[in-house]
Amino acid sequence: MTTNKKYLVGVFNDEQTLIDAFENALERGVVIEEVYTPYPIHEILHGMKNKTNITTAAFFYGLFAVILLIGGMYYAAVIDWPLHFGGKPFNTFPSFIVVTIVATILTITILTLFTFSVRAKIFPGKNAEVIDIRATDDKFIILLDQDKMGMKIPEVTQLFQTHGASEVYQKETVAN
Amino acid sequence: MYKTDVRGKLIDGEKSLSQISQEILAPIDAKVPKWWYIAMGISLVMLALGVKSIYVTLTQGIGTWGVNSTVAWGWEIINFVWWIAFSIFLLILRQKWRTAINRAAEAMTVVAVFCAALFPLMHMGRPWLFFYIFPYPNTRGPLWVNFNSPLFWDFMAISAYLLISASFWYFGMVPDFATIRDTTKSKIKKAVYGFFAFGWVGSSREWLRYEGLAFVLGGIAAVLVVSVHSIVSTDFAVSIEPGWHTTLFPPYFVVGAIFSGFAMVLTLVTLMKKLYNMGDFITENHVDAVCRILVFVSLIMGTAYITEIFIAWYSGSEYEMYTFFKNRITGEYAMQFWGMFIFNALLPQLFWSRKVRRNLWVVFVISLFINLGMWFERFNIVVTSLSKNYLPASWAEYHPTWVEIGFFVGTLGMFSAGVLLFFRYIPQIAIAEVKMISKFNKQQTTHLKPGHHHDYE
Questions:
Q1: How far apart are CA A30 and CA A23, in angstroms?
Q2: List of residues 6+ apart from A148 with CB closer than 8 A
Q3: Do A96 and A65 share a structural domain?
Q4: pLDDT band at B457 (very low <50, low <70, confident <90, very high)
Q5: How many cross-chain Cβ pairs, A to B, lie less than 8 Å apart?
């Protein structure tokens, strides 16, 4: 099922006017659908109230990897097939640490990248849902859903323009 | 907050954000210059020699190399250690100026690690059975690998390093690929870069997770780089060869990797400045900063060399004494020792002078000499210790054969071909990151509202 979604797009020329308009809109109770910027802006990331647990996830991947690696090496070197290396003990824990560090880092990297890909929906073959093509170049875009923004179009337009929007326009997209 | 009056400007010229994209992307759209084809041709000829050498090694065996039972490690291990040391140490510097050169450093690392990995692979003798080194339940016993062996650690380190540096590099480029997709006029480029951009649009949801990812990868990659080079040093340090068996080795190798990594970055960015007019982004201040790091690291290198010599004398071991005083400082291999010492410890001291740091040609030449000096260092470590150790009856000389030289030349060709492709097809500088720091470019930061003085690190 596809429905047409009506959007209102505010275009800003620089970071400062964007933050200004963004914060004022939030104060006035406007519901902001999404913000598109050429680089990360912490005020926006903070103001959008999205949270990411990617760092926590990475920690648990690491923990999981450490247990698995040390357990695996212990199993191989002590239980499954103990070998004599010049009278060294079978459980040569200190030298397991080396492999554990490197392989843990590898596990964290691969799993965190995978998590990023899934959660941010960035993956090979994805079609970019471009709202305003200039957002990856030099424009800062605030996107509002006309049905949900909680204010009338002229009011929002005026709000954006008083805070330095270079353009405000309406856009319809086919959402699925 | 970045102080421009102290550190100099991050970007020269007052550039708008779209100018930043345009100027960094210019080499991708511009007509490919003639020198590029010539350089690529030379690189491919060198690569062909490498392929021929690998073919000879594969079909006839390690016997075609100059290594013998005394000097069992020759050019292959020298070159392996040399290549692996070109590292992404910029990660450790949480400095705003790194944004101009980190992309080139990451590109260099990926290609260099790939070159490095070929050497131990071919050294295995039967490289098609390389997977035997991977610990997996098998039908050979089941026979597990020796988890205490530095050679196994090395295998783990190289594989992890290759995968991680490649993914680190790639994900840094995703927003820039999206910029190409959205600004190019060519349909082919739009499709190709659009595919590699993975559907990136720059939404706050993407950036939020991207920042999280960068934080995690940056943090662990720094640990990885330190551990990889420590592990490479244990290939030597856990043996009992004179000149190798020393606790100095792990930090010595890590610092050596910082040193050669920055030297190679300097080589690349001076080329980018001269050949691609990236001078506004890679300013004199950037080159200056790298040079100052090199002075400092060079002092550490010098200290390490002198410490080794001192400990050889202080230990009272006649084998250590012999290795250092009769086999390195004087004797057959004196040329390599002094090459190493002069190029790594003395020559970079010229960077104390501001005039030298600001003269791009001198900087370029010194960076090449450092790369050469670091090769001598590896020669010095690998060959001198092995050729004359405890038993005079087993002393032997080592001379590389054309196969070994060809193999090395081949990797040099592969590296330069990789760098040329990088210059032509990939944004040489991280566009999004440069845009992010462009606001710190002004003397005054009053254009930012009070309460918005965030440090973007």
A1: 10
A2: A31, A33
A3: yes
A4: very low
A5: 203
Say yes or no for a CB contact (<8 Å) between B213 and A19.
no
Residue B111 Cα, gap to closest chain A Cα (Å): 19
Chain A interface mutation, best of B15, B209, B442, highest count of A Cβ atoms under 10 Å: B209
Same domain, A67 and A152: no
Residue B226 contacts A where some CB pair is shorter than 8 Å = no
Domain tally for chain A?
2
Its sign, for the CA torsion B30, B179, B200, A129, is: negative
CB A24 within 8 A of CB A159: yes
Domain that holds residue A98: 54-119
Terminus-to-terminus CA distance in chain A, angstroms? 6
Other CB atoms closer than 10 Å to residue A137's CB: what's the count? Answer: 22
Write out the two tokens for A161.
Answer: 């323009």
- Which band of pLDDT confidence, cut at 50, 70 and 90, is reported for residue B233? very high
Same domain, A132 and A109: no
- Residue that the structure tokens 């990248």 belong to: A113
**How far is A21 from chain B, CA to nearest CA, in Å?**
13
ipTM field: 0.89
Q: How far is B456 from chain A (nearest CA, A)?
A: 8
Phi, psi of A167 (to 5 degrees): -155, 145
The whole model's pTM is what?
0.88
pLDDT digits (tens, 9 = 90+) for A54-102: 889 999 999 999 999 999 999 988 888 887 878 888 888 888 998 999 9
Question: Which secondary structure element, helix H or strand E, spans residue B121, and what is its range?
Answer: helix B102-123
